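Protein in question quoted for reference:
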Amino acid sequence: MHASHATNYTVSVSTDLINKMVNALPGDTITVANGTYSWNLVSFVNTHGSQTATPIVLRAQSFKGVVFSGNTRFEFQITNMIMTGFVFTNGNPLSSAVIKMGKSATQGSKYCRITNIIIDNYNSDSSAATGVTAEWVGIYGTNNRVDHCTFINKAYGDPVVVVWYDNNTFPQKSTSTYHRIDSNYFKHIAYQGANEGENIRVGVSATCNTDGYNIVEYNLFEDGIQVDPEIISNKSNHNTYRYNTFRNTAGGITLRRGRYCEAYGNFFLRDATSNNNIQYGFRIFEKGHHVFNNYIEGVNSNQGTYGTTLCPINISNGESPISDTLTAAAQSNHFPADSCTIAFNTIVNAYGGAGIMIGFIAGGSYPYPPHGVTIANNLVMMAQGTAVYNASSNTALTYFAEGNVYQAPSGLAPSGTIIPSTDFTSQSLVFGARTNGILAPPALARDAAVNTANYSAMLNGKDAQGQTRSAIYDLGADEINGSGTIISYPLDSTLVGAGKPLAIVLPVHLLGFNAVLVNTAVQLSWQVSDEINCKQYAIEWSTDGTHFSTLAVIAAKGANGITASYDYQHLAPAPGNNFYRLKMEDNDGSYRYSALRQVPVSKNLVIQVYPNPAQHFVAVNLNGLMQLPTTIALFDASGREVKRISLSVNTINIPLEGLAAGLYHLQVTDRVQTLYNYAFVVTR
């Protein structure tokens, strides 16, 4: 939809700007004339924009040509607006955010974007109230984006960027936000007041039950000296942290509250000549997180002791036991890691007590250990310290480990701590020359992963650089002979931040692509966001995984900042293996492919699953020949296997008692291949 009477306005007075923004229609552009301005609060509400209309644009006459100082700050409630090109420097936002994408928790903006904005040394000073804290960018509402901005020299409390939710009453859920924070440059964040000094915080403790679905990606964090150890702090569910780079900057990523988040493809690098600020990788609390394909090099972490929670990867103890029902008084507590997977990460040349901490007790105040954690196929090379730490008092700790390989001067674990050598194997790890910003993995990592099939769905067949892995995965984050286009590598300041919108081309976001056999047809479905330049999707099919033909072409819906879903049914798959991929084509003719999805089809086997939704049982009927042994496995929404049954008959009722309500996946496998995948819902 295009605006038929778009109007351009130029303003140089704040009251004129506010008036124009209140009355702007879709397609209108309001330009602030070049100059330096010292305004106060610029606040407006616009009710004319809509998700499907042309955006309203608020822009500087030229990039960096408009400089705001003094007490200038913005807040707005609007739908579908782009704000771009401004500089905020040497000012004082008093007790407010510099930019609020929304006026309050219940007056948020939607489908808005701030881009090519610079905020530099815009700090509250002695004229502000004592103890004032405020973020620089507060994101309220849904489906907003903060991208290609530069944030430098923040020296007072509260994070640089905060995702806020519309209901802060624990334990109630807020509205899912679906924000995207990408391609920004954070430098010299320097708050010295300990807590509340993050670069990015997604939620608060009171919103930890909320499903956020936010994406934080392709951001560079550099030379931060804030005392708060959390560069990124997660406090809501189902968020994704990927392809970010942390260079010589204090802190790391903390999955603090909230559940079922993914963190992958992140690069943590610290030079030997860097300052002494403590840099680490991950602290993992709470339930169901997946931390994989991350590269952590040279971090100094806990500096040879076990008396701190900071280390390359800390799978943390809690001060309270994990629970699905909490009182408001406990909402801010730390809870132990539970049912998390830490796999295919590379730790190289790290200095610390241990590379991976499995549980940590701080003076007895964190007595509850992790449960049900999987640690698999990681490479750990320590320049100082041990490979693993496991507190001997963690007698209730439960974890499963396989395929991990280490080299450490002080061995596998501290004296008195027993870690089975079958979980972590000692090898001489000789990394190769730096390629694409990271050290090439040791040759022994090639095709050395254990039980690749157990992790292929989580990794989506990719390594840290977005390349396709081989049939048997390599150990660690980087596939030695990975194929396809590299989409991520360590960032520097020439690639991200204000004024560099084309340095990294972000294609349409493929959130998920699935292919499942439903009786005799293959059901294909996929979800995407930000179809800014996407033209169409070609569904391609093959019986050998090499030669493909096009089944159908589906036009893109043009979803900008929102999620769009598609589906297609292949009614006549071939007996045997069927391979599917998406060809995602842009308006400029460029394209990229999704990962392959393989669906085996037996000409003699028809499988029925019913009822759906199910309550007490789900019935499975296999009408055809099986190759014994045949098994049925149930997986919950986080990918955790919750039930496995061996079949000797063709029809079986699977009891569902003890399973929580929610989405589950049923997988039928014979001794040769996976025959069938089916999604169903359990109700209570």
Remarks:
- The helical segments are 14-23, 456-459.
